[in-house]
Amino acid sequence: QSVLTQPPSASGTPGQRVTISCSGSSSNIGSNTVSWYQQLPGTAPKLLIYSNNQRPSGVPDRFSGSKSGTSASLAISGLQSEDEADYYCAAWDDSLNGVVFGGGTKLTVL
Amino acid sequence: EVQLLESGGGLVQPGGSLRLSCAASGFTFSSYAMSWVRQAPGKGLEWVSVVSGSGGSTYYADSVKGRFTISRDNSKNTLYLQMNSLRAEDTAVYYCAKESRWDLPTRWSDYWGQGTLVTVSS
Questions:
Q1: Whole-number pLDDT of residue A1
Q2: Set of chain B residues whose Cβ sits within 8 Å of the Cβ of A46
Q3: Rounded mean pLDDT of B20-39?
Q4: Per residue in A7-41, pLDDT tens?
Q5: SS3 content of chain A, % helix, strand, coil (to 5)
Q6: Do B44 and A99 count as a contact with CB atoms less than 8 A apart?
Q7: What is the Cα–Cα distance from A17 to A27, expressed in whole angstroms?
Q8: What are the φ and ψ backbone dihedral angles of A6, each rounded to 5 degrees?
């Protein structure tokens, strides 16, 4: 059972907009920044969003992040087949003194 | 170009020990905290441990506290994870990751290695 809660799966057709939610608590998302990671099949995770809503260079602006209170979300617009991957949210937890991850969301492009 | 290359994984019996290494290049190693994150087969990511840029501060997940030790050698640009009293549930791919800042708590991991597989089985 992960500290951060994500839906196990999400799906959309090419061109659609999908959102993935991440729910936490006051000790993690509520008091620290959220990051998102994309893990393509058989590869290492890659930073997708940092500091709640910032994109590293090279990440398309189709990906966006937001945070409100103890929840965060990742939005992907103009869905493409290459977006099919697992997505994880993460944040530092002040009570656990460590990083907590969501359980991951498997995105399927139909 | 930032590169992180893990090594040291393999098959070990329950109760055994293993030391993982992560050779870093392409950035000033001592200026950044470093982490280990693991992923059991078919499962999600699990944070394991983090060490500050100086090596003076460390944090561990409860699941490995007292059994694993993270350390770094800034003169060799290398991160380590000493794993003792290994259990079947420690079986996973272990990734090393560069953190976004020198000090703790960490904020995000901006680069990840390709991982090394640790299998604990008799």
A1: 86
A2: 112
A3: 98
A4: 999 999 999 999 999 999 999 999 999 999 999 99
A5: 5, 50, 45
A6: no
A7: 30
A8: -125, 155
Q: Is the pLDDT of residue B52 over 90?
A: yes
Q: Determine the residue of chain B that is closest to A90 in CA distance.
A: B108
Cβ density class B84-102: b for 16+ within 10 Å, e for less: eebeeebbbbbbbbbbbee
Q: Tell me the pLDDT tens digit for each residue of A48-57.
A: 999 999 999 9
Which whole number is the average pLDDT over B82-109? 96
Mutate one of B107, B111, B116 to test the A interface: name it (highest A CB count within 10 A). B107
Q: Checking DSSP bridges between strand A105-109 and strand A9-12, what pairing results, if any?
A: parallel
CA separation for the pair A49, A87 (Å, rounded): 11
Cα separation, B44 vs A5, whole angstroms: 12
User: Å from A67 to nearest chain B CA?
Assistant: 15
